Amino acid sequence: MAKRLSSTTTTSRKAMRSRSVQRIGIVGLGLMGRGIASCLLANGFEVVGFDISATQRKGSLKHISHALTELHKRKLLPARRLADWQQQYHVVTSPEGLAECALVIESVAEDLELKRGIYAQLESILPTKAIIASNTSSLPITSLQQGRLHPSRMIGMHWGEPAEIMHYLEIIPGEHTAPSVIRYAEKFGRSCGKEPVVLKQDIRGFLSNRLMYAMMREACHLVEAGIADIADVDRSFRNDIGWWALLAGPFRWMDLTGIPAYAAVMEGLLPELSDTKTVPRLMKQMQKKKAEGISNRKGFYPYTHSSSKRWKKDWVDFTYDMKRLAEKYKAD
Ligand SMILES: NC(=O)c1ccc[n+]([C@@H]2O[C@H](COP(=O)([O-])OP(=O)(O)OC[C@H]3O[C@@H](n4cnc5c(N)ncnc54)[C@H](O)[C@@H]3O)[C@@H](O)[C@H]2O)c1
Questions:
Q1: Which of 3, 19, 47, 211 sees the fewest Cβ atoms within 10 Å?
Q2: 138, 204 in Cβ contact below 8 A?
Q3: Phi-psi region of 77 (alpha: psi -120 to 50; beta: other; left: phi over 0)
């Protein structure tokens, strides 16, 4: 079992101070937090994980064990690291256990007030030099900095799932983030095996989510307008955009296929694309049905226990295949 630290254990604090390995805290050990923990452990960091739920704390151990075993099986993690991750992962039952962390990554649900409450707690625990990062998917970082005693130490760090496999990391400075914190976050991202992108402005949704939601709005519109059904929209996307999106981003793709055609098409097509400002009807229907997707087997498609398990497994296997391709076909 991974070590469980009492938040007030002075011996463990002393031991920690003498280590050269950086200790990173994670608040929220749900889907993302446990993936981030796996990534950090795989890259040699010491991790302190805190979640308010005992079930989630326990679940993180099982998830990390599985994620690191998979990395090892695919020759992406040395045996030594697989053998000793339990010494490097500390599950704590109160936020005080995060006191010795150089960086704390907050990854609780996407709720501004909940996140603000966590930062207030962290402020009373962490030394002022410790950095606080948020894995928020959409909240402007400046809004998270409001009311904080030391807003300059706060930054957005947006991870992708599965975090231990992907190269994705967006770093979002808020209006008050110190330049040294931005430099630290970028360097830290690289040491986690990521290709970090630092945004020049604090904008809601950041980069990849803005692109993805623009696409999802149009996908809902095409179905709601009766132009295609869900499976056909998915099929076209997968067989066209899905075919090149790892090789090239939108701009490289235009270079590869010829820019003039895109400018001409934009003239006629852009006025016809959905620009709705409200949540599409299709999504509201899903909300009403309490559909969460494969996790509760209610989604746009029907799922059984075994088909949802298969999709979960395919997703991980596929991400490993994509990692190999991304490394073979470098972007820069
Ligand atoms: N799901 C994704 O694909 C994805 C991708 C990137 C970023 N994000 C962002 O990451 C964050 C977490 O998302 P998730 O999908 O992991 O959510 P999740 O619901 O799976 O996990 C959130 C965790 O926070 C814990 N929590 C709630 N209140 C807490 C508190 N007061 N103290 C400590 N722990 C508490 C919950 O018990 C839960 O385990 C969100 O901000 C989300 O927008 C999600």
A1: 19
A2: yes
A3: beta
C-alpha–C-alpha distance, residues 232 and 318, integer Å: 21
The identity of residue 73, as a single letter, is K
Q: How far apart are CA 264 and CA 267, in angstroms?
A: 5
Q: What's the CA angle centered on 25, arms 19 and 30, to 5 degrees? A: 140
Closest residue by Cα to atom 29, ligand 1, is: 52
Question: Whole-angstrom Cα distance, residue 266 to residue 285?
Answer: 31
Name the nearest CA neighbour of 102 among 184, 43, 35, 36. Answer: 184
Q: Write the DSSP symbol of residue 293.
A: B
List, in sequence order, every residue forming a beta bridge with 89; answer none if it has no partner: 47
**Which ligand 1 atom minimizes the distance to the CA of 33?**
16
User: CB pairs under 8 A, 24+ apart, for 311-317?
Assistant: 315/162, 316/70, 316/162, 316/165
**pTM confidence score:** 0.90
pLDDT single digits (tens) 229-274: 999 999 999 999 999 999 999 999 999 999 999 999 999 999 999 9
Best probe residue, ligand 1, of 94, 104, 108 (max atoms within 8 Å of C-beta) = 108
